[in-house]
């Protein structure tokens, strides 16, 4: 993927304002919606039984994040995954903190069988989703990105998903490709929802990429490049995790092609 | 309504700190509470069965927003509407994204029959609440404010509500009056909850207006004028949707009579 | 407790990044997580039945805040309290707005019997938890801190908890000690979750204090000193409640020993 591709997909997000259905955890709903709005997408948090399925079928993209999976959200998540699959809506699974916590772990294993277009998580979550490890402690990873590449490949092969492993350098993996996106800012790890909101942005980029003729793998890489560039700009314009957050939203909103050229892809 | 009236109601909010019960969606609880606090009101999010009804009866104002209407919130919403009606607590209905989504649409139609003091929504939501159209796509309007005036009038006549239709220029409609409030900032549409928090502020202004001898219609107009003025000031003091949010809260907190004189009402 | 002790516990939080399980209200989840991250702790919001208990047992500290206690959270809260007690995890009870609201009042009375390591609330909440008064109106206190000292002492004696009463000057009370922490900023009362997030920070400081050989009482006082110092710095660097919030997170992140020396403890 070239910088030109990242710019193409970003421009498409801004031009078409894809409607992104989000089922996500209660900690990050607000930040996630603001991140999508700043980028030019149209978020809607529809996470109850009876509404989530039809909405996922009609949306341009869908996120399912299992971070606070109460009974209502578990039902809504399965409905949304089934409906998105049938309607062809690209969707993203974020298996937050799975491994030791039983409800979300069972739910994520059920969801991945519905063949998400993309899966995003930290190394421990991806390893746990592949059935190859016990998960991290809390929401943080106990494993390095590079140690999760086999697990990511396994998920990609079994379920056809593009798998994004987040870390200091992110790895994006499909059945036959790997890309890495570095840069960004560690400050993003000091804002809750930095990773969770990325999952929603992936859904927006999958929707926009499809409309622009960019495949799912390149759309996910483009998304990481954009997110990383915005984080770098925000880090330059802030003095701590508090001021980083508004600076990050401003950067996503104002990000230009010249900004994207500053990011190194490997 | 004159600027003097807007200032009177705002001063009353700050002097009396009306207690505003909020049943609202999980995306905007935090921002809504911060908006109310910045203005000088006292928010409390009480949204469970067994507590919501008694709280609405004792509060100075009440918001019911149907944005993430899980089963517990649906029950709490009906309890709060009934209790507010019996106790004479002024209350606001915000029919977020109704039309195609079945749970919230049914709930909003039930709630409006309890005769809310005010209804606030975008044009598509107001048209859907009047039974005159299918609603928007996601949380955004597919209709222009001016095309919703008949729907707003219909709701006002049937249920006695003041109906506020949000858009680039807001329209406030009762059975026999119409007012418009322009100005503001499109930046408010890039912050999730810009409209939802306005619904809570209307509840605070209805409570304060009553105490100050200002009727419901003028109180709702005053509220829009204040909100719009703060948005304009915030837009001048920010560089994107991220920095707009804290600037907006600062502006609500610091808003003066001189600031209000800058807003044009039609 | 000396400033040196506050610095010791803060350094330990930053060095060890204690994992803090949070069951808290939907209004403040995001801010609470960001406050913990800014300080160097590792938050995780695990608040459903089947997960909350095992998580509380494995965490370094646990918060249980009853601010939006739906049925799932009520079950999860009891599970977490029991599990924390058995595992020896230090935990904090925050009895938000108890008194007149029946669900949370009953829940808080059940929870305090599980002997929380610390209890944090405003004066009205502490008086209501001791069974000595009807609680405040909404989430704000109707009583002065000093008038709650007897109630705090009563809770401390019956349940072995350190009891922190928040107000313009905070009082920290055990069965045989009292300390006061002043300073801070009234701006913190204009940001929703200012008190709720403090409850989570107390859990982090209890965990870190234990690891550093500082007892629970001194850890709670240290926590208040740090929080108060950060609020003062933030107030100096902001122009309203909106800009105060990011400034507060930045201040928590950057707080130095020299900053702590500016706080007066009585």
What's the helix and strand layout?
3 copies of one chain form a homotrimer.
Chain A: H1 3-16, E1 19-23, H2 29-39, E2 42-45, H3 52-58, E3 61-65, H4 71-87, E4 91-94, H5 102-112, E5 118-122, H6 123-129, H7 149-159, E6 162-166, E7 170-173, E8 178-181, H8 194-212, H9 216-236, H10 241-254, H11 257-260
Parallel strand pairs in A: 1-2, 1-3, 3-4, 4-5, 5-6
Antiparallel strand pairs in A: 6-7, 7-8
Helix pairs in contact in A: 1-8, 1-9, 2-8, 2-10, 3-4, 4-5, 6-7, 8-9, 9-10
Give me some keywords for this one.
homotrimer, 266 residues, alpha/beta, UDP-N-acetylmuramoyl-L-alanine:D-glutamate ligase, eight-stranded mixed beta sheet, 8 strands, 51% helix, 14% strand
What would your notes on this structure say?
The structure is a homotrimer of 266-residue chains. With 266 residues, chain A is an alpha/beta fold. Chain A has one domain: Ribokinase (UDP-N-acetylmuramoyl-L-alanine:D-glutamate ligase), CATH 3.40.1190.20. Helices cover 51% and strands 14% of the residues of chain A. The first copy, chain A, has eleven helices and eight strands. The first copy, chain A, has helices spanning 3-16, 29-39, 52-58, 71-87, 102-112, 123-129, 149-159, 194-212, 216-236, 241-254, 257-260, and strands at 19-23, 42-45, 61-65, 91-94, 118-122, 162-166, 170-173, 178-181. Chain A has an eight-stranded mixed sheet with strand order 2-1-3-4-5-6-7-8, sandwiched between helices. In chain A, helix 1 (3-16) packs across helix 9 (216-236), helix 8 (194-212) crosses helix 9 and helix 9 crosses helix 10 (241-254). Chain A starts with a helix and ends in a 6-residue tail after the last helix. In chain A, 69% of the residues are buried. The mean pLDDT of chain A is 95. At the B-C interface, helix 2, strand 2, helix 3 and helix 10 of B face helix 5 and helix 10 of C.
């Amino acid at each position: 993927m070239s910088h030109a591709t990242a710019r193409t997909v970003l421009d498409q997000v801004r031009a078409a304002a894809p409607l992104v259905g989000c089922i996500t955890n209660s900690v990050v709903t607000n930040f996630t919606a603001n991140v999508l709005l700043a980028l030019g997408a149209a978020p809607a948090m529809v996470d109850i039984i009876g509404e989530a399925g039809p909405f996922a079928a009609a949306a341009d993209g869908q996120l399912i994040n299992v971070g606070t999976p109460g009974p209502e959200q578990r039902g809504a998540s399965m409905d949304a995954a089934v409906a998105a699959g049938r309607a062809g809506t690209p969707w993203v699974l974020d298996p937050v903190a799975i491994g030791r916590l039983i409800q979300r772990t069972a739910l994520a294993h059920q969801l991945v069988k519905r063949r998400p277009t993309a899966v995003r998580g930290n190394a421990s979550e991806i390893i746990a989703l592949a059935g190859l490890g016990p998960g991290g402690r809390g929401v943080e990873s106990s494993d390095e990105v590079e140690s999760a590449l086999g697990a990511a490949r396994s998920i990609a092969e079994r379920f056809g998903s593009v798998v994004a492993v987040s870390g200091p350098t992110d790895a994006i993996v499909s059945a036959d490709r790997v890309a890495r996106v570095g840069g960004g800012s560690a400050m993003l790890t000091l804002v809750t929802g930095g990773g969770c909101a990325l999952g929603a942005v992936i859904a927006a980029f999958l929707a926009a990429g499809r409309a622009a003729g960019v495949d799912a793998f390149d759309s996910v890489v483009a998304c990481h490049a954009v997110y990383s560039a915005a984080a770098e700009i925000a880090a330059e314009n802030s003095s701590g995790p508090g001021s980083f957050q508004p600076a990050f939203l401003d950067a996503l909103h104002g990000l230009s092609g010249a900004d994207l050229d500053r990011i190194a892809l490997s």
